[in-house]
From TrEMBL:
The keyword Amino-acid biosynthesis does not apply. PANTHER family: AAA DOMAIN-CONTAINING, FIDGETIN-LIKE PROTEIN 1. Residues 1-133 form the AAA+ ATPase domain. This is Fidgetin-like protein 1.
């Protein structure tokens, strides 16, 4: 499975949730985990990874930023990188595992267009993780503030959802963090007391929106939607 989309939309979190729901052993891998300065060690670690995952099945191998590990091959790259990619592609094809092994490989990337064609073919389920819509943004605000004193009404939360177009989940978390500092900034810090801190209000969110901006532009979103139309399997 390949999860692709803008940064901050929860691709890594989805991988962890899948492992928790399936009660599977979770292996979180990055490019630095499998690279080594010693010749041939990278390929050995790839084989060891799939061997251990097979022993502890059902298991999920999650590869964050998979484009850094399986980017397009070229004549300029060194032999070590090429050998590592070849070994990983062979393992992805299931050559080193049995047919009935319960090993799921999930890759996450913000740059799907840089993936090698052979890796793209092996990641048969390619799911687009879009930015949260207005309803999802309202739910994110509600969950992030559930343990924080606030005076927001349902209408206020809906207003925040309308004002945060093109915000990712990570952007919404930054916005709530900035808004939560509003009550602290409004009191005298020389005589601060927990009882003096007022609840978070909609005005704090309006002030926070002056400094917190969305991290994804429309040009980037078009790249993801175009790639999804060409190679994607739909939305997650």
């Amino acid at each position: 499975i390949l999860l692709f989309g803008p940064p901050g939309t929860g691709k890594t979190l989805i991988g962890k949730c899948v492992a928790a729901q399936c009660k599977a052993t979770f292996f979180c891998i990055s490019a630095s985990t499998l690279t080594s300065k010693w010749y041939g060690e990278g390929e050995k670690m790839v084989r060891a990874l799939f061997a251990v995952a097979s022993v502890h099945q059902p298991s999920i191998i999650f590869i964050d930023e998979i484009d850094s590990l399986l980017c397009q091959r070229s004549d300029q790259e060194n032999e070590t990188s090429r050998r590592l990619k070849t070994e990983f592609l062979i393992s992805l094809d299931g050559a080193s595992t049995l047919d009935d092994d319960l090993v799921l490989v999930i890759g996450a990337t913000n740059r799907p267009q840089e993936l090698d064609e052979a890796a793209r073919r092996r990641l048969v389920k390619r799911l687009y993780i879009p930015l949260p819509d207005e309803q999802a943004r309202c739910e994110i605000v509600t969950k992030l503030l559930r343990n924080i004193t606030n005076s927001l009404t349902v209408d206020d939360i809906e207003e925040v959802g309308r004002m945060t177009t093109d915000f990712s989940g990570a952007d919404m978390a930054s916005l709530c963090r900035e808004a939560s500092l509003g009550p602290v900034r409004s009191i005298d810090l020389s005589r601060i007391d927990a009882l003096d801190v007022r609840p978070i209000s909609i005005d704090d969110f309006r002030d926070a929106l002056k400094t917190v901006r969305p991290s994804v532009c429309q040009a980037d979103l078009k790249i993801y939607t175009d790639w999804n139309q060409t190679f994607g399997s739909g939305r997650c």
